[in-house]
């Protein structure tokens, strides 16, 4: 909190030991998690992210903010997802110059068919944000930061396979 720019949230990321993107968001309204008396999700739950509003696709600052938020809230990559594990939604809405962040708990209700009926219950926290200042990387530097070196991609070895337990099998071709 400062006198000139009160209630700020600054989000950023680095590339090659330099700041790549940094966005300062002004918090205009804040409702804490404890202020909403509904049930909460367990700690460490990976949220589903929803971005609504044309600004996230059109405006460059909003597009980079979307990328930053995805990087921040994404969590670990998982091989599969169970339906009951989808219990937290973070919803970001861009309207005019404001960004509304809402957090919901997913409730799976019984329905007449196999697929459950889904309801969203406000869980908190909720924020009304406004982009104040941005420090965005140039397009060339941004594209360079997205490239992955070829050394990180493992080469496929021919005639080598693994089973579910991690045992390595090799196939040998012999001619007599």
From TrEMBL:
Keywords: Nucleus. One of its GO terms (cellular component) is nucleolus. Residues 1-140 form the Brix domain. Its main location: nucleus. GO terms for molecular function: rRNA binding. GO terms for biological process: maturation of LSU-rRNA from tricistronic rRNA transcript (SSU-rRNA, 5.8S rRNA, LSU-rRNA); ribosomal large subunit assembly. It comes from the Eukaryota. The keyword Nucleus applies. It is found in: Nucleus, Nucleolus. Belongs to the RPF2 family. This is Ribosome production factor 2 homolog. The gene is RPF2.
